[in-house]
């Protein structure tokens, strides 16, 4: 079994550009500071393979040093987002692995979620149609999710005899939609409709299928034009403060905001306000 090693890593302390990155197992493009990751096996509802898991992990890790990417959109080609792990290319081979091999795989898939959450750029998922298993976890790991009326999100691990606690689902899903709702979805593996997902807070908004990716890109472009260093700080604090008490969180935010006040973007915003013009942020 091959676990792909990333091509876009930089040495510690060095910055990189990802605009020329040639993805092997999905489509990848960077335009005006927005990177778009498109899962591209529409004839199979865009399932993941061992190699696409690994490449996603490596790509999102590389975003930590990418100067040219300010926001990220994840989407699926065609009318579906992602059907999860490929039955023939993943599920079947997993039945033949020993325990060390199984643990290597499950840790790698969890590392995809860790990498999405750890990269400083806001990540927006554009979810249409099927969003199942590991696909649902890619959406859940994102910062913001747009869906459609026909979105069907299912954490269907129990349907294949597994626990619902996969890739961080038991930690992340209750924080997004609540403990009881998460428990029902993780125990039953049933699909959550688009309307239900919006009502429960899984989706930030619903759009027409033909508009959902464009809406995600519009939001991503807006964020990319903003104070991106500060956005990275916001994302970091959103993750870190889950494990803090309120007093510790207030102190952490005091330190984080003081750092942001030392940036050039903060000074640009002040001078633009005085001059009665819109600030032009540069992310430094």
UniProtKB/TrEMBL annotation:
Superkingdom of origin organism: Bacteria
A Pfam family hit: ECH_1
Gene Ontology molecular-function annotations: catalytic activity
Coiled-coil ranges (or none): none
Family: Belongs to the enoyl-CoA hydratase/isomerase family.
Protein name as annotated: Enoyl-CoA hydratase family protein
